[in-house]
Amino acid sequence: RKEVEQDPGPFNVPEGATVAFNCTYSNSASQSFFWYRQDCRKEPKLLMSVYSSGNEDGRFTAQLNRASQYISLLIRDSKLSDSATYLCVVNMVSSSGYALNFGKGTSLLVTP
Amino acid sequence: NAGVTQTPKFQVLKTGQSMTLQCAQDMNHNSMYWYRQDPGMGLRLIYYSASEGTTDKGEVPNGYNVSRLNKREFSLRLESAAPSQTSVYFCASRPRWAQGASYEQYFGPGTRLTVT
């Protein structure tokens, strides 16, 4: 079982819509959580970190449920420029160090 | 700051040829990583270096070697390229992990490698 699982989509939504992405992770030792954005043929870039109390950055809201090992990203008032792949990322600490585990990504297409 | 740089941007190899992908970062980060990304597979970790002088295998290390040349540079070598190694390769770096911290990972622009 993959450590980080996401619905691959694609999610096709009209401009102005609200869309939510979900992600589950398997390792309860995971310590920090992120959403990355990846545009076509580009490198992933940090969208936002995810904090236990939930956090918001403009139109983007991230939530974390440690008990259910579940992370979400909500995008309100979608823009055409939000079209991208969104990667759920989980940081895990182990005896050999630490590693970021990436989900396979959820594809979003915002249409006019 | 240039951030994370990778060379080359594109490369075509014949089966059996060797090459080294170069990566450098100017952010004084301790940890560096090599990933490959294939359609439908997401990002998979090949090797990483938690700090200068150390390297460790990731999820898919077979067919690759790495060298952490100094704190700035981390190279990935394909000794005998195979078509299965056709992929996009990303290098990344990150500050040293610390308890309670939430440090992001910074990626280079990628190298698109085709092995024929």
Report what the structure shows.
The complex is a heterodimer of chains A (112) and B (116). Chain A is mostly beta strands and 112 residues long. Chain A contains no helices and eleven strands. In chain A, a hairpin with a 2-residue loop joins strand 6 (55-57) and strand 7. Chain A is globular and about 45 Å long. The model of chain A has no long low-confidence stretch (mean pLDDT 90). Chain B is mostly beta strands and 116 residues long. Chain B is built from no helices and eleven strands. Chain B has strands at residues 4-7, 10-13, 19-25, 31-38, 42-49, 56-57, 64-68, 74-78, 87-94, 106-107, 111-115. In chain B, strands 2, 4, 5, 6, 9, 10 and 11 form a seven-stranded mixed β-sheet that branches. In chain B, strands 1-3-8-7 form a four-stranded antiparallel β-sheet, with no helix packed on it. In chain B, a hairpin with a 3-residue loop joins strand 4 and strand 5. Chain B is globular. The termini of chain B are far apart. The mean pLDDT of chain B is 91.
Keyword list:
heterodimer; A: 112 residues; mainly beta; six-stranded mixed beta sheet; five-stranded antiparallel beta sheet; 0% helix; B: 116 residues; seven-stranded mixed beta sheet; four-stranded antiparallel beta sheet; 11 strands; globular
